[in-house]
Amino acid sequence: MKIGIISESPIDLALVSALLSRIAISRAGIAWPLQTDNTIERIGIRQNGHGQVLKALKKLKTLINDGPFSEYSLFIVLVDQVPAGIRRRFEREVRGNARLVFATAIREIEAWWLADRASVLAWLRLTEADITTHRYGMAAYNAERDHNPKDTLDQITNISTAVQTRYDGGNVGLAREFSSIWKDSARLDQIEISCGAGFAPFCRATTRALRRSRSNARNAD
Fold first, then answer.
1. Which domain CATH number covers 39?
2. How many domains does the chain have?
3. Which of 66, 76, 134, 163 sees the fewest Cβ atoms within 10 Å?
4. Distance between CA atoms of residues 153 and 195, nearest Å
5. pLDDT-derived band at 215, boundaries 50, 70, 90
6. Which of 119, 95, 86, 109 is nearest to 198 (CA)?
7. CB of 82 closer than 8 Å to CB of 106
8. Is residue 186 part of a domain?
């Protein structure tokens, strides 16, 4: 099954690809591998913020039934948190097309990453005791309410001896390293609880779209 991803950055691409693999197996009952690609660049637009994502989405709509794009089961369109007016523009663009799934990561996709606390701590080989003086160790910590998830990741990667570099303002290498583990182990239930406004609707919509694609593929056979 081929899935296109239109997102703001390579970090988004890596993390969403991992989540899609996990959702497909554990929620949609799809056992065969997913093939994802960076559709925004495939159609000739550079990744750089939600404006470029919207531009790519509009272009994709003119190509979606032609050539190689007709072979894709669905496309995921993902942006970080945007103003309500911008979000409505995206929603209008995807409305009525079952092959398009739009999602907003609040505040940004690193919040979804941090929401899977057990996976994050295991990856970094940290315990709760190691992070008590950091934002991530606060008793009331909630990833979706974190005002700067990138900084939170930077703090905990900086104290970990399991990785060779810190996250800083965004580290593609670390995102890809974590994603290689996450695709088989992401705790979707926990992410849904912590990121109820952003991830939970994305997970539900993606599950429905994957099940629909699976059903269509069976009917075609």
1. 3.40.50
2. 1
3. 66
4. 16
5. confident
6. 109
7. no
8. yes
Quote the CA–CA distance of 104 and 17 in Å, as a whole number. 15
For the entire predicted model, the pTM comes to 0.95
CA atoms within 13 A on the CB side of 125: 5
User: In the 8-state DSSP scheme, what is residue 146?
Assistant: -
Q: What is the pLDDT of residues 69-79, one digit of tens each?
A: 999 999 999 99
Q: Using alpha carbons only, what angle is made at residue 100 by residues 48 and 202, rounded to the nearest 5 degrees?
A: 80
DSSP calls for 164-211 = SS--TT--HHHHHHHHHHHHHH--HHHHHHHTTTTHHHHHHHHHHHHH
- Single out the residue of 15, 8, 33 nearest to residue 111, CA to CA: 15
CA distance 23 to 84: 27
Domain extent, residue 76, equals 2-108+172-220
